Structures are given as C-alpha cells and as structure tokens.
Amino acid sequence: MNPPETPEILARPLGVPGSIAHAVLEADGPGLLPLASRLSPTLPPPSHRSRLGSEAFGVSGPEVRARLESVLGGQGAFVTTGHQPVLLLGPLYVLYKALTAISLAARLERTLGAPVVPLFWIASDDHDWAEVGSTTILDRSDAPRTLALPVPPGGERRSVGSHTLDGPGMKVLDALPEILPESEFTAHYLELVRDAYAEGRSVSTAFARFLGGVLGDRGYAWIDSARPELRRAAAPLYRRLLSDWDGTLEAETAGARALEATGFEAPIPRVEDALPLFFDEGGGRHRVRRGGAMSPEGWLERLEAAPEGFSPNVASRPALESYLLPVAATVLGPGEIAYWSQLGPLFGALDLPLPSVQPRAAWTLVEARTRRILERTGLSPQDLAMGTEPVVERLTREARPEAVQRALEGFRKDAEAGMAALGEAVAEDVPGLRGAAGKMRKGIVDAVSELSRQVDRATRERLDVRLGQVRRAGANLFPRRRPQERVLNPLSFLCRYGPRLVERLARETDRQVASFLAGRAGDG
C-alpha cells in the first residue's frame, strides 16, 4: 500500500494586520528591529567569542561538532531560535522555528564563507506548567485531545524543564498508542517518544532528544538554559543589571516608550522596582525586586554566593544570548517580534549587539481529505478561521427546503400583519384584552420559531455527514478557533506521513527564507 500523499503546505501571514509583528515586517513599517532582509550579513567581531565551552552544547551529528568548535573559537556565528521544552515539542510552530533557523544558518554560511551554526535555545527556566507541560494532539477521529503532565506537589513555580519524569507522567504518555493514527510510521514515532521521554529523565532533556529524533542530523546544535555552566557564565551580565538598577529600569522604560511612540502598547509590562531577572532559592522562581529586607547590595551578595539560582525573564533572555554567544541573527515568532521591539535600549545599555531578525516560517497543513471537504462545500481554509458554527449555519440555511422556507416566511409576514391589526383593534375597542392578545402574539411567534428550529434540525440530520466533515476540517485547520500551527502537535501528522513531511517542510521553509532575504516576503 502506497503511503498517503503529504499535505498541501500553505503559507500564512505571520503577523496579522494591526499587530506589532505585521508593522515590523512590512517593507515600509517602522524600523523597530534590524531585519535580516534589510541588512548585509556580517559576522560578529572575533573579539566577541563565546563564553561557553563546547561541552555545554548538544549537536545533531559529529560534523556539527567541528563547526561548533570553530564558532566558539571566534571563527563564525550562531543563528538562534528557541522555545520552552514543551511536551512532545508542543505546537507545530516549534518545529517551524527550528527549520527556519537551520535554513537561515545554511544561507548565511554560504554568504559569509564561515561556519554559521543554527542553535536551539531550550528555555527550561519557564515555570508555566499550563503551557509547557501540555500538548494537543489530533486523535484518530480528528478530535483535539490534550495531554498534560501532572504538576508535582509544590512545583507550581518551579522550572518545568528540570522536572524529572516519573510514574504519573509516564501514564499520560501511555495513552499515545490509542490516540495516534495507525500507519507504517506510527511505531517509529512511538519508539522515538519512548526513547526520549524515559522515566527519570528531565523534561528539557527529553525535549532535546525528541527534537533530535524528529529533525535527524540536519546540522544544528542546542543548549539547555538550566545548565549550571550557563548559569555561572551569565553571572557577569546579571551583575551589570544589579549594579545599575536604575539604569536598567530606565532602559526598559525607554524601550516601552519607543514602541508606544509608534502607536503600539508595550507587550512586556513593567513590574515596580523589579529587574528582568528571576531567582529561585528552592521554593520557586520569583522576580528580583528591591525593597524590604533585600537591597541591591544584598542581591549582589546572593549572586556571588549562588549564581545558579538566577535566571532571565522574557526581556533579559535575548540579551543573555548575545552576551554569551556570537549571534548573527535570530528566528522569532510574532509574539517574540513584539517584545523584542522594545528591547533596543536594554541591549544598548548593556553594550550588546542587537541581532538581525528572521521571522519564522508559518504554515497551514491541508491534508487531502480536508481539501476534498473544502472543495465539496466551496470553502477555503480561511472560511473556518472563526469556527465551524457560522459555516454550519450557512450550509443549513442554504439546504433548507425552498418550499418550506417560502411558506414559513410568508406565514410569518402574514401573521405579523394580522397580529398588528388585531392588536390595534383590541387596544381601541376592548383594551382589557390587550394582555390576552399579547400572549396570543407571543404564542404564534414562539410556534413559528419552534417549527423553524425543527426544520433546521431535520435539515442538519439530512446533512449530518457533510456537517460532520466540515467540523472535522475545522478541528484540523483552526482547532478552538486558533491557527493549526499554534495548537496542534506534529505527532499526528508525522505518524500519517513520516519523515517525508519534515523534508517537504524543510524545502518550503528554505524557499520562504530565500524570499524574505530577497525582500519579497511581504508580511512574512
């Protein structure tokens, strides 16, 4: 039996009109960020060597290790991207991020004539269990099923990435064989899951291992932000922030004002007297704030004593990348583009180069069966963006028996005219019966409405298969009225189509990156 044809891969705009990302990516938008398509690529200066040794990194193959060593020695650069270590890679766009970074690095390497290594930064410091510890997978009936790791007792504010997989977590993953579609590829991907998500392994290590299994040796490296040597190497940057508390706060405020001057609300909120840092003393991550018993000097003493307890927030993590590594460019999604747009003054205050930005690829996967449904119903994928119920209502109206519809509409008009005339007559001649006339009017209206609903129910029953297919297509393309790439895990698609899907996504992503670099990508 031949494997099914891989899905149609449709590009979708990364930033919706009116968003910060859309404004940044527009050719005539405000110059909030240095875009890769508008700059001549250059290597970071040789003096900006990595502050980390090669042992801190994982690599997809031995060839990458040699190129990594060159970059760490000052003879090349990184293209970075990253995400929290979401369960089973999380939504599809995490995979798209990685493929975009790999494509951009290869193109920059050819242009610059020096090693450029794509680096996936695993932000394992995140303590948002609701996001990191769960994922949504299409089951065999195309219904979204959410799997969630149980939050360990007392772990609500602890970093998710360092959590060790245990028995309850294994039980969650045990449900996969009953959820995933059966195909010649399913056993392979289940084996990758079992190999990566082994009991006793950390969530971030499992994520890296599974990412490697899905991507294969595509020439990339990764780093876990929770590694002790990374935390220690970050301490001098954190010392700068702590030593100039007011200057750091002013840089954050200046970034927010610069963005607001372009007409947008700053996406990173200010927390009074709080630096863009977290500290975990064993009970959970909390913002570094001054006041009360803790002064800036006290925080500096704590940094000297326990640098591994500090970690960046959404504002300082990008700066930390550029402090630790020679970064030529970074791959961002729409939300990241929004908050990076207010980080220029913070980078300036820390005397760090702001990398050029490449928007990640954004795709909608339209499977053949979904395409057939769309063609039969005359729909486009975007018609389902607001959910399937408006489409179901329209199809039901269109399928109503014309004779019944005409008769109902005619009766409703005649009844309204008759009831209006009767109401006037009663009000003039027997006003005491106005209440009875009103009740009769309401009864007729309710009876007509009920009959109309029954006609709709009968029509829906007649259209049951067709409307079920529309709902199935909607669950695939816009689950929960959100873009597919932001909700659905790649596992179901990988089990149906195998590694060929990743190969096709890589080719399409490379074309999109080339188009953006050439300045023809519109809004990305």
Task: Give an account of the 3D structure.
The protein is an alpha/beta fold. 49% of the residues lie in helices and 12% in strands. It has helices spanning 20-25, 62-72, 92-112, 129-132, 167-173, 176-179, 186-196, 203-215, 228-243, 245-260, 296-305, 316-324, 334-340, 344-349, 368-377, 389-399, 402-429, 434-462, 464-477, 491-497, 499-517; strands at 8-11, 57-59, 77-83, 116-122, 134-138, 144-148, 221-224, 274-280, 285-289, 310-312, 327-332, 356-359, 363-366. The chain has a 6-stranded mixed sheet. It has a 3-stranded antiparallel sheet with strand order 9-8-10. A hairpin with a 4-residue loop joins β8 (274-280) and β9 (285-289). The chain is globular, with a radius of gyration of 28 Å. Residues 520-524 have low confidence and may be disordered.
Question: Mind telling me the C-alpha Rg?
Answer: 28 Å
Largest sheet: 6 strands, mixed
Which stretches are poorly predicted, pLDDT < 50 over at least 5 residues? 520-524
Write down the overall geometry: globular
How far the N terminus sits from the C terminus, by CA atoms, comes to 38 Å
Strand content: 5-15%
